[in-house]
Amino acid sequence: DELNYNKDEL
Amino acid sequence: MNIFRLAGDMTHLLSILVLLLKIYATKSCSGVSRKTQELYAIVFLARYLDLFTDFISVYNTFMKIVFIASSLAIVWCIRVHPMVKRSYDKDLDTFRHYLLVAASFLLALFLHEKFTFLEIFWAFSIYLEAVAILPQLVLLQRSGNVDNLTGQYVFFLGAYRGLYILNWIYRYLTEPRFTRWIACVSGVVQTALYADFFYYYFISWKNNSKLKLPA
């Protein structure tokens, strides 16, 4: 979902 | 993954390796703020709680583990290693870093993407990372003279932040779904904190002289 999509950076 | 993001991650990794190398080779942590290093350890531990819940990529998981392990190793060296511990000057490292932790956590309670445990800790880690360099910058300014490796450490950290901003601009232009205001605004604040340091770093590089910060 959108939230996971936003967490792909370190 | 774009080139700016990869270069950003690599300079971030490089900065940590430079610091570990300095501490390991000289058995000394002079000029290094233990408080900044502890804040970074907290940042990584709080942000990567999703290691247990979400899988993004092998690269992502690997880097998260490396960042957590290396930041804990640095704190361990400064706190526990007998020789390194002796070189730590706590009278120079007086920044009240717990205030940064408290303020970041409070801000995360109000400003987050979703009111869940993981999301609050994620936002907390973003806010804390933005200001975690402050004890280090204050320490450098106090001691005036900056040794080469410590200067390079801060330089690579600043470069990592700058490259992440380029990465966000690139993603904003190429990915229609890209919106992440919390990370981007905090990232710009964080990068701005380095501006002063970069200015003096550039001057010393141009004059081929030792890096000195004005008192």
UniProtKB/TrEMBL annotation, chain B:
Localization per Swiss-Prot or TrEMBL = Endoplasmic reticulum membrane
Task: Look up the domain of life of the source.
Answer: Eukaryota
MF GO annotations:
ER retention sequence binding
Signal sequence range = 1-25
Q: Name one GO biological process term.
A: protein retention in ER lumen
Q: According to its UniProt record, which protein family does this protein belong to?
A: Belongs to the ERD2 family.
Q: In its UniProt entry, what is this protein called?
A: ER lumen protein-retaining receptor
